[in-house]
Structure formats: C-alpha cells, structure tokens
Specification:
- The chain is of the alpha/beta class.
- The protein contains 15 helices and 11 strands.
- It is 47% helix and 9% strand.
- Helix 5 (145-165) runs parallel beside helix 6.
- The mean pLDDT is 96.
- The chain starts with a helix and ends in a 9-residue tail after the last helix.
- Strands 4-5-7-9-10-11 form a 6-stranded parallel β-sheet. The chain has a 3-stranded parallel β-sheet with strand order 1-2-3, with helices on one face. It has a two-stranded antiparallel ribbon with strand order 6-8.
- The structure holds manganese (II) ion (MN).
- Residues 213, 248, 275, 323 line the site of manganese (II) ion.
Length: 424
C-alpha cells in the first residue's frame, strides 16, 4: 500500500497552527536554527529488512499480521515509513533472507519509493537448507578449512548481490566464539578469522567499505572472536583502509562507555557505521531511546564533534542503521519511534555550543561543561524535527497519521493475518 500525498498535506494542515506555536518557542534564541533544520532534513537512517516483522524471542514468535511476505513487500514497508517521515531513505538487506531474484526490478521498485540500498549483511550464524557445511562451531574461525571456505564464498556472494543493487558496503557480524574454556585456541581462531576476512576484503569493489561488527557475548557465552571494539579495530587495521569498525549499541557489556569508544574510533578514522537500538541488559533489541536516552545523547554528542573535527559529512560518511527486532509492538510503529528518537537526539547534539564546551573543558569547569550538555539534552527538539519533516513533504506526526490511516489494518487485509516475515 502507499499513502497519498494529499493525505499527508491534510494531516499537516490540521496540525499546522499548534506546530508553529511550538516551533516559535524552540527557535527563539536559537541563532543557528536554519542550519540545524537543513541537517535534520538531510539525515537518513537505514531500516533493516529484518525489523519489518515481529522478531522472535528465544522461545516463541507471535506474528502481528500483515507482515511482508517478500523482498518487494519489505521495500514497500520501508517506502511507507519514508513517505511518513522522509528520514528512512534506505534499506539494509540480509542474505539469504532477501536474495533479489530480479535485481533490476528490485532496484526500480526501491527507486520508486526514493530508497537506496544500505550495507549488505551476510549470515554465517545459521545453517541454511541444503548447505553443505555447518556453522555449529563457527564460520571464519572454524578449525575446518571447508567450513571457512564456505563462509568466505557466502560473503563474496553477498557483495555480488549488493553490487547488483547499488549498495556500497558489507557488514560482517560473526557469531563465532566458544561456550567453554579450552574449546578454542584464541590465537588460531583470530588468525583463521583474519585470513577469511582478508579474502573477503580482497573481493570488495574499489568504492566499497567493509564493516566489522563486534559483540560481547551471545550466542557464545565464554568467548567471542570479534568480541569488542579493540578486536574489531585490530581486524579493521590489519585489513586496510576500506575496513572499519561498526558499533552496535546493544553489543557491549553493561555500562560500557560507548561514547568514548565512538570518540576514539572516529579520531582514528576507523568508525564506519552504527547500529541503533536500546537495551537494559544485553542485546535486547529495544526501541532506540526507550531505556537510556541520555546515553544516546552523549553518543551523538561525540559523533557530531568527532565528525566535525574530521570535516566529515554527517549524512554520507557513516552508515546509520537501526538494528532492532520486536515481538510485542507493531514493527512499523516501533521503527517510526526509533527514527524519531534518533532525529530528536541528533538535533540535541547539534545544539551543543562547541566553543563554550571547549572553554569549560580548558578551564576545568566541570559544572559548566555538565550544565551545557544537559541543557541541550533537556531541550525539547520535537518541533525542530517536525519542521524538518514538514519541509521535506513528510508528516508532522508520522505515528499519528499511521494510526489514523489504519495502515496496519490495510496491510493485514492485503497480506493476511498470519504472515511471517523472514528474520530472527
Ligand atoms: Mn547489529
């Protein structure tokens, strides 16, 4: 289904007066409001294809109805989100869940919705039907050469699919590791993994990037072969200039200082991409900003500061993606909430007066530095983000319009109540 332009215009018209009042309030005393609005309008967050269905828990899966049944329907869903907020202009695919049977048609369909293809994701954490070797004991780290070979070839195949669709990056997340002490020779596992990544890296087209994602634990519970940013950075450094570290918010041990990790990776020119989500305990896949919004702000503060220090383009030079998957919410509503949380926080980080912050730091004025950051975090940026949407033809309140248009009901009617999207 598609949402007609006039519906968005009608919706905006009905909210315009109240919006204007809120916007005037927040822009009063904001000298750089126009610059911030432009940056917000440009900012795009990629939607992962596996977040469009209700993800499972370890124990069960409860389909929400109207879930996309094919790659085409996944693209339609992201197209809907993008029509509502004009900030979700990319989709990130996962192979083998989203193999494009007809890449030309898929590309054309995405273009119709104004979408591009973000990083491609390989999968060596599951065995697929008909697959010769098993990843039970890891993929690139595996002690068996034939298993490693299969994992390398799969990643190269993913690059090929990505090329056909106009993507320009590959994200490698490995579930490799061990569950018990003694199971694995750490150095051998690292070496095998590095050699595998080197072969995949060699197959990258000239203008492609490779993102090496790390995760502290799960599915392995004793060691993970790309377990933290140090290990990821080590691989990325050994691989070469096209390899970068990818930070997923949920892939750290509790209380890790992610903003500091981000600052240092950016300083080294080795931060490639970002997976947004939120968590209380581990890799919980919760809606962005639902648990630790201040942490998200501090991360964005470092992202903006670090990108500006290197003269980077906020929209293009890092891969921005949501990585979450739900089982109790309407996935599209959840994604609208996540994109909104990202935009609000990005706006707050853009409010930070860098000169004043540096002056406070140089004077060891801790109180002034903290006050400055917290005053930005406590600023209600909702009207700024809404104004950026208004200017790009999106809805002032995407979630409200999604509900008033009964989009989920339409999707259920179209696709059925028992559809299950591919994913975890
Ligand atoms: Mn991730």
């Amino acid at each position: 289904m598609q949402i007609e332009k006039y519906k968005i215009e009608e919706h905006n018209q009905s909210l315009l007066k109240e919006h204007q009042r809120k916007l005037n309030f927040v822009t009063a005393g904001l000298p750089n409001a126009e610059t911030i609005l432009r940056k917000l309008a440009d900012f795009q967050v990629a939607i992962p294809s596996w977040a469009l269905g209700t993800g499972g828990t370890r124990f069960a899966r409860f389909s929400g109805g109207g879930e996309p049944r094919s790659l085409e329907e996944k693209i339609e869903d992201v197209g809907l989100l993008h029509a509502l907020n004009r900030s979700s202009g990319a989709i990130s695919l996962h192979i083998p869940w989203d193999i494009p049977r007809n890449p030309t048609a898929i590309k054309a369909l995405a273009a119709q919705f104004g979408l591009r293809f973000d990083a491609m994701n390989s999968n060596t954490f599951q065995d697929q039907p008909g697959q010769k070797q098993s990843y039970k004991f890891g993929s690139l780290q595996n002690v068996r050469k034939d298993v490693r070979r299969q994992a390398i070839e799969h990643n190269i195949e993913v690059i090929r699919y990505g090329q056909e669709l106009g993507s320009d990056s590959l994200t490698v997340w490995l579930a490799d590791g061990s569950c018990f002490p003694g199971q694995l020779n750490f150095r051998q596992a690292f070496q095998n993994t590095l050699e595998g990544l080197q072969e995949i890296y060699a197959a990258l087209p000239a203008d492609w990037k490779m993102f090496v994602e790390y995760k502290a634990f799960e599915p392995n519970f004793y060691s993970t072969t790309v377990g933290d940013w140090g290990q990821s950075l080590l691989y990325a450094s050994k691989l070469g200039p096209k390899a970068y570290t990818l930070v997923d918010l949920g892939h750290h041990l509790p209380n890790a200082n992610i903003e500091q990790i981000v600052a240092l990776l950016l300083m080294e020119g080795k931060l490639g991409g970002f997976h947004f989500n939120d968590s209380k305990y581990g890799d919980d896949d919760l809606t962005v900003g639902s648990i630790k919004p201040y942490q998200l702000f501090l991360i964005f503060n470092e992202l903006v500061d670090g990108m500006d220090a290197r003269g980077m383009d906020h929209t293009r030079d890092l891969g921005w993606m949501i990585d979450a998957s739900h089982n109790v919410k309407d996935p599209l509503e959840d994604l609208l909430q996540s994109v909104e949380a990202i935009m609000l926080t990005y706006a707050q980080a853009l409010l930070v007066d860098r000169k004043q912050l540096t002056a406070a730091q140089q004077a060891n004025d801790i109180v002034a530095a903290q006050e400055l950051l917290q005053s930005c975090f406590r600023t209600d940026t909702r009207a700024l983000v809404a104004e950026a949407r208004l200017r790009t033809g999106a809805a002032l309140d995407p979630l409200k319009l999604y509900r008033s248009e009964k989009i989920r009901e339409h999707l259920i009617k179209e696709r059925g109540a028992g559809t299950v999207a591919t994913g975890l």
